[in-house]
Amino acid sequence: MVHIHLSFEEMWEKIIACDRMYDGLFFTAVKTTKIYCRPSCKSKKPKKINVEFFHDIGEVEKAGYRACKRCQPEVDHSPHVGLVRDVIAFLVNHYKQRLELKDISNHVGVSPYYLERLFKQETSETPRTYLDKIRVDKAAYLLTNTSGTNLEICYEVGFQSPSNFYKVFRRLQNCSPSEYRSLNSKGEQQ
Fold it and tell me: Which residue among 84, 100, 169, 178 has the highest number of C-beta atoms inside a 10 angstrom radius?
């Protein structure tokens, strides 16, 4: 089982946003109901104190949790879900590196052309646009939770050039990194 490197806070943010990008990579278990869900589940959100996260469906079930009837986390909806999950886990774990399509396709053992076509069919994204989203997610998290400069964060999350970082960030967040930080900084009045 591939383990992704996300903090509790980052996983919490994904479930609050009902982010489908992380479905299958971790599961949200609610201690009070003994139910587990996908990150994208639309059910009422539990209190943070009652949540624990699992990276493996076997682990969460062994811990005594049962699957949510609404999001059905135990059901794989496509024969390609394993390959797509491996690609997404690889992207989440290696987002800081300079990644080419051939690096990703070598990791999962299929041709670059086949990978790109299949990934787009399953996620409506290319591996590159998915990687951009992961990097911008990380940058947004760092902008609101650290004092790193925009430039430091740009390189920290794997962008090779500040201009590309600003362009992609603005496209995905509808604002600049500086605007995002001032709008979302923890502890400041909204």
Answer: 169
